[in-house]
Amino acid sequence: MLFRTNFHTHSNYCDGKASLREMVDFAVAHGFTALGFSGHCPLPFENTFSITDYEGYCNEVRALKEEYKGRIDISLGLEIDYIPGMLEDFTPLIERGGLEYTIGSVHLIPPQGVVPKDGNDLWMIDGSRYETYDEGLMKHYGGDIRSGVRAYFHQQNEMLVRNRPTIVGHPDKIAMHNRSRYFKEDESWYEELALETLSLIHELDLICEVNTRGIYKGRHPDFYPSRRLLKAMKQWRIPVLVGTDAHAPDDLLRTEGAFEYLASIDYPTILSSYQRR
Ligand SMILES: [Zn+2]
Ligand SMILES: [Zn+2]
Description:
CATH architecture: Alpha-Beta Barrel
Radius of gyration: 18 Å
Number of strands: 10
Strand order of the largest sheet: 9-8-7-4-3-2-1-10
Low-confidence stretches: none
Shape: globular
Mean pLDDT: 96
Structural class: alpha/beta
Helix content: 25-40%
Distance between the termini: 6 Å
Bound molecules: zinc ion
């Protein structure tokens, strides 16, 4: 019998390609025992990826949870963006939605010292085009990659301390659109910043995801956090949860060898499962 779980799941309430029900039906058909939804949180400016009907999303996940009881354990979560000066406190969203868990993520970075008014004031480090990353780096950080990367990790640290999300989302996603052009991930200044964040995850006793999306989308050859960082994380025994960051039903299966890799390095604390028993 299969025991599979996934807690990083999107739907067409945000930028996903399928309805909540389609995601659930696919999961049930493929032997998942638990499925957590984590749509992109509503944001106070126009954009193409976040939830606009927040009540509708929460209500429908709750209704499906009831309907599928005994077949699959559905939980209501949200992938919340931490944006200094714009979205700093997760509590109102947690309370309004009655959330069962949160994934804390950084995708949007304001320039230092700027209180962002809308998306034009933010460096978007995610998305499908690396050109957006390059343009934002130039516009908001004058092309200074070290300042931009430092701002990313510091913003993430601030989020962890202030909000203690249930799961830390893709902690080194800043490396994705870099494509080894501006920096190499083994440069000491970069590694120091990444390890500072990981040691904070440990101090705060949080769970970190192992996000596989970069690999199956062909955007990045590694997990987030990278294999290199996962090896360093072993010393702290940070609990990890493999998440596919699914935006379509098929994505739910794309674990991309994460469990096998974690087993190969004897990673000590793996919370999710994806195996035959
Ligand atoms: Zn994300
Ligand atoms: Zn996501």
